[in-house]
Amino acid sequence: MKRNKYLLFLIILPLFTLVTGCGGKSRQKNELSDFKVEDTASIDKIFMADKSNRKVLLTKENGRWIVDHEFPARVDLINDLLILLKRIEVKQYVPKSALENVIKSLAVYSTKVEIYQKGKLTKTMYVGGPTQDHLGTYMLLEGSSIPFICYVPGFRGYLTPYFMPMPEEWRDRMIFAYHINDIQKIRMEFVNLPDQSYEVTHDKGRFEIKLLKSNTILHNFDTLAVKDWMKNFKNIGFESFLDVNKARLDSVTAKYGIYKISVIQTDGNIRSVALYQIPLPPGTVDMYGNEEKIDVDRMYGIIDGKTLVLCQYFTFDPVTVPASYFFPQSATKKK
User: Fold this and answer.
1) SS3 for 96?
2) CB 146 within 8 A of CB 94
């Protein structure tokens, strides 16, 4: 009988400690609070998953971060996450009055984050939501009996958005990111004006412009203008990923094509984007009450024939120029 009472006591004690502990020496057992990763340079894999079955795997391969072993990752977001992991601190214990609710919330809504260093799993944490003042984040280390309120010194806000288990959020937004010396050829196609479509070839600082439809080589163009134009391909990105129903997408691609841009790299790889106007619903008007049939700020883009994205005219205006752009103004006026 005494033995049974002793076993019951051993079962109840940890539960009592987990739910009722609030500070002091009585909470020292199984309190893990080392969320910080000092050597972030050794991190080579980060896995995130939430209770909605959303997940993402970030891996460092040949010095570059990759999303789900397939897509380049956003360098800015990776850097922000690594800085956060290096600077994160425990702000305070979760107050006793909120402890039970926080534990329940973490069990249902948290994101599980696994940190690997040199191929070895070194830290697993659960990232919850913000505190009431949005200046702290509820977090729990695997193996710990209680969660903590964490923060980054000097940063006003909560940390949950830095742990997004959605692959599309981590994928790089770049379409073209090439140094001029990495470009062999750029093909600029005007869907509705095929006579104006052209191709610029680059070979060790020498350039050639050819009209695609007539296969005509152009001469006496401004070499500096061509070089400046090609430099724009160092940083051309898109706004966001899209999910458009097939019927609408088929309608848009059949009627609203405007440009197709292809970059052939010196290693032979080709990267392309086809751009389409976005038709607006009937009755759409601008701020002056004038009817607008086409979105004048954004376009649909299809990268390499498969990835649908939202693009801005502002981003592409510097490169979607006619061949006449590369000729001196005097020659252009004579034409």
Assistant:
1) helix
2) yes
